[in-house]
Write a structure and sequence with these properties.
Elements: E1 5-13, E2 16-21, E3 24-29, E4 43-47, E5 50-55, H1 57-71
Length: about 70
């Protein structure tokens, strides 16, 4: 099973982006989205350092809500 994490782009340099999610920043490779118009502020789904798809802010928020529920103590 794979887990993709929604992250927001805060800086872009070529095919590399600095992304942030819940206060954590990571370098993310945008090469797989080279045909997409990606700008600072966009949300992307990240898996093992690669952005797999662009997503809306609502999709990112919904995904984080689901992940938070999965991680909540029972």
């Amino acid at each position: 099973m794979c887990l993709g994490i929604p992250m927001q782009i805060i800086n872009i340099q070529g095919y590399n982006a600095q992304c942030e999610a819940k206060g954590i920043r990571r370098e993310v490779n945008l090469f797989l989205l080279q045909d997409e118009a990606i700008i600072v502020g966009d949300f992307v789904l990240v898996h093992v350092g690669y952005a797999l798809q662009k997503m809306t802010s609502q999709e990112a928020q919904t995904t984080w809500e689901l992940l938070d529920q999965l991680m909540a103590p029972t």
